Amino acid sequence: MDERKRDSMIVYLRHRMDDFGISPDDLASFLATPSLGADTGRYRSAGGDTWSDEGAMPQWLKQATSAGQSIGHFELPGGTLAQPAKQTDADWKNDPFAGSPLAGSSHPRP
Question: Disulfide-capable partner of 45 in 28, 49, 61, 66 (CB 3.0 to 4.6 Å)?
Answer without folding.
Answer: 49
